[in-house]
């Protein structure tokens, strides 16, 4: 098999892996940000490239090939930036809308100019620069955002954003490399390698395994949701809570202060580091800003047989993310727990909240 064919297959397969992983993520979370990224990676998987279109028997007219090749890059960059906005802020603000409107207007003007005879007089590097710049910058920005807010550091998951960052940087150089035949194949090979690196991290990110508890526990608590103002109240009311249940703990405390057993998963909310700290019991450090992935991890744990979720880190999550985001996090946990007939125990110092915030908490979580 020729080198060009291997490079083409590598790029083709890795594009579809990224699309399928992001699609799986959207199906699991139902979040707008992942939906937008799903469409971006779908368009990228069907890019205007010969190694993608030739096997499908599709030919692009030579006279429109260059302009047709720009359009996917502009569309993908728009969807990626829009998706990042939703992943970070959960909704678009007026400045985001104006920014997107300006971007679309500039793209239209550039494509309009590309349809004129003056466009053909420009060097290829200048003709290709805007679309390559938009695509490359959007991939780099997505990679930075994923690494900072979504994936867990010091794990294989980090390959997901790093592959995108490297791919984005390579695309920034495409207008120059395309005019150097000696480097074209090497650039396509690197693009395939970077996509494979990203795909490996994406698969690890999407299918991170949650080991089931060793023993199946029946639900022993009489109601689904409990709100306490102090952890000592929990110890007094349920002295055997951590001995008789399979518990997922989300805490700011030193994890070793709990009565630890094998059927525990502890997510220690900290900025000191990330990743697996201990295997027995299972203790994971996770950044307070990664509440989306934390919800997903808890949901997976409930499906595996954990029956109690214990949270005493709300104040810290609120400090790092704001009350609105932290409160939505609690509501998501509540929905997942109820759907799996589990129990949620929430410890919040209500005196530390403003009156409006306290009323919202008490309305959704009745004080014990």
From TrEMBL:
Keyword annotations of the record: Membrane, Transmembrane, Transmembrane helix
Among InterPro entries, the record links this protein to:
DUF835
Query: What residue stretches are annotated with the DUF835 domain?
Result: 229-365
Q: Where are the transmembrane segments?
A: 6-27, 34-53, 65-85, 97-119, 125-147, 159-177, 183-207
This chain belongs to which protein, by name? DUF835 domain-containing protein
Organism field = Thermococcus barophilus (strain DSM 11836 / MP)
């Amino acid at each position: 098999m020729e080198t060009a064919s291997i490079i083409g297959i590598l790029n083709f397969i890795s594009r579809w892996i990224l699309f399928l992983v992001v699609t799986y993520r959207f199906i699991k979370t139902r979040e707008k940000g992942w939906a937008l990224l799903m469409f971006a990676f779908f368009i990228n998987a069907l890019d205007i490239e010969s190694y993608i279109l030739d096997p499908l028997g599709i030919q692009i007219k030579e006279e429109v090939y260059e302009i047709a090749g720009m359009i996917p890059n502009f569309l993908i960059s728009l969807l990626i930036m829009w998706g990042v906005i939703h992943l970070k802020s959960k909704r678009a603000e007026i400045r985001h809308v104006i920014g997107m409107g300006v971007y679309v207007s500039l793209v239209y003007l550039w494509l309009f100019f590309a349809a004129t005879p003056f466009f053909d007089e420009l060097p290829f590097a200048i003709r290709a620069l805007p679309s390559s710049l938009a695509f490359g910058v959007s991939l780099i920005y997505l990679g930075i955002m994923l690494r900072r807010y979504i994936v867990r550091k010091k794990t294989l998951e980090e390959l997901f954003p790093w592959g995108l960052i490297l791919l984005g940087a390579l695309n920034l150089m495409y207008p120059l490399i395309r005019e150097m035949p000696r480097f074209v194949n090497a650039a396509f090979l690197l693009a395939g390698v970077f996509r494979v690196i990203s795909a490996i991290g994406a698969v690890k990110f999407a299918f991170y395994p949650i080991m089931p508890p060793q023993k199946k526990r029946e639900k022993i608590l009489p109601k689904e949701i409990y709100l306490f103002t102090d952890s000592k109240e929990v110890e007094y009311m349920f002295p055997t809570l951590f001995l008789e249940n399979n518990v997922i703990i989300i805490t700011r405390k030193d994890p070793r202060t709990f009565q630890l057993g094998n059927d525990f998963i502890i997510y220690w909310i900290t900025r000191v580091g990330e990743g697996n700290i201990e295997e027995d019991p299972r203790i994971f450090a996770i950044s307070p800003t990664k509440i989306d992935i934390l919800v997903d991890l808890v949901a997976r744990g409930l499906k595996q047989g954990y029956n109690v979720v214990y949270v005493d880190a709300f104040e810290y999550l609120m400090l790092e993310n704001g009350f609105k985001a932290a409160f939505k996090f609690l509501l998501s946990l509540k929905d997942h727990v109820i759907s799996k007939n589990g129990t949620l125990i929430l410890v919040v110092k209500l005196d530390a909240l403003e009156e409006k915030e306290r009323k919202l908490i008490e309305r959704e979580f009745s004080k014990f």
